[in-house]
Structure to design on (274 residues):
């Protein structure tokens, strides 16, 4: 930790190193949290090893970064989430410019008031694809910035957090097998019997318990996977919407656009321009 900068020192370097970086900050006192939207169109201080006093959840809206920590080094693309624990040293090395982030920070009172730990919140957020989509809806509300923005954003934040508490962090092994199979084969056809065979349980067991552990139906989860995978493809100029719809195994472009808009609040072309 001694070699990592505090967020105060990090922010000072970030501000002085380039004028191309800027932050918008939104306060939500009832949630003990803040939302930051940052834009970076040039090299900044993110490469410096630093830490934050508060845990925070960050979604990469645009660009590409290398998420580098003590036990992790992973390329992140548009639409991906990163959760950072309080005091966790990390580097966010920008690889594709411009990069844009939306981050939600949590004050210590949040965890005390809701009787939840950082670890449980991280696991719960990462297990539900709706986290990505809800953050995009929050982003859209903040961009609208009218008299309804505060209450709408706060409601979405409550939904983001409350929904995750219902997702069980301890799951039977067969559920983990189903989860892995679905994520590894997100663009392939899988019948209920295929899942049951792989997990070694009866199809009725999956039908009964799937909503409990995934907070949605099997069909909806598969739609979420396809839309989540499309986020980074949309940001690539070499793919048309028709090609993305085909690549993500949608019936056609209209089905893709409809599901994308319903889940994220944006049309695919609007998201591409963010």
């Amino acid at each position: 930790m001694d070699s990592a900068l505090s967020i105060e020192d990090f922010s000072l370097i970030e501000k002085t190193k380039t004028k191309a970086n800027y932050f918008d900050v939104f306060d939500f006192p009832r949630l003990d949290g803040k939302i930051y939207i940052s834009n970076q169109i040039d090299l900044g201080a993110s490469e410096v090893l630093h830490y934050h006093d508060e845990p925070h959840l960050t979604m990469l809206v645009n660009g590409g970064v290398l998420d580098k920590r003590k036990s992790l080094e992973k390329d992140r693309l548009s639409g991906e989430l990163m959760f950072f624990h309080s005091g966790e040293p990390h580097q966010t090395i920008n690889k594709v410019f411009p990069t844009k982030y939306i981050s939600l920070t949590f004050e210590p009172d949040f965890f005390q008031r809701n009787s939840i730990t950082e670890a449980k919140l991280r696991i719960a957020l990462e297990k539900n694809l709706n986290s990505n989509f809800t953050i995009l809806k929050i982003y859209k509300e903040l961009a609208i910035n009218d008299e309804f923005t505060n209450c709408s954003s706060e409601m979405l934040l409550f939904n983001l957090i409350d929904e995750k508490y219902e997702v069980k962090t301890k799951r039977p092994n067969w559920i983990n097998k189903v989860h892995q199979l679905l994520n590894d084969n997100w663009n392939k056809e899988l019948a209920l019997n295929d899942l049951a065979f792989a997990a070694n349980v009866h199809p009725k067991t999956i039908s009964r318990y799937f909503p409990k552990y995934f907070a949605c139906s099997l069909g909806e989860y598969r739609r979420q996977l396809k839309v989540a995978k499309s986020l980074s493809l949309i940001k690539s100029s070499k793919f048309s919407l028709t090609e993305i719809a085909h690549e993500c195994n949608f019936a056609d472009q209209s089905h893709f656009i409809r599901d994308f808009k319903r889940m994220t609040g944006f049309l695919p072309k609007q998201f591409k321009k963010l």
